[in-house]
Design goal:
Number of strands: 6
Strand order of the largest sheet: 2-1-3
Radius of gyration: 17 Å
Number of helices: 6
Helix content: 40-55%
Order of helices and strands: HEHEHEHEHEHE
Structural class: alpha/beta
Shape: globular
Strand content: 15-25%
Amino acid sequence: TATALSQAPFNLKVCVVDLDTQKSIYDQRQLDIEAYDHAPPPYEVFDLDTKQLQAQIVDLDLKFDIILIDTAGKLDTDKTAEHQEITKALMFADYLILPFVAGLYNVKATLKYLDVANQLKAARQLSNRPLSVFGFVARHRPKARQTQYLFDDLEAITAGTGLKILNTPLFEYLT
């Protein structure tokens, strides 16, 4: 997403803030810089925690057109929605895009994440910065039976929650 938005036809100034503990995006960027030292990357990547993001968000917002925040993909099972680390990160977001992956446990985990996001969305209804939440199908395998089950589940989820699903799934393997 960052690569697409930072190049033609969009040419936006984009950064990615890697908040999750894996730091996989930040680590990959370091490998990119070592391997391709002849050209600057099309967007910047920052290794921050939630407190650092809070301290730097105004400056980042002034410098960049788009700020993508990579958060942890799981919740703290022992904490309420308002005490989740993800909730602190989502306070800075205008849009949340949730990946749905086929498989009962994947869908169940994403629905828990959606529940936390919807609680935050409801709390922000009165503010001038509402949170918009979308879903998309990730790791799509067109001929897999679980994929059809996922699409059936998404029909029920969208009917019950009003969640909007992006039209184009991301395939598991790109060719």
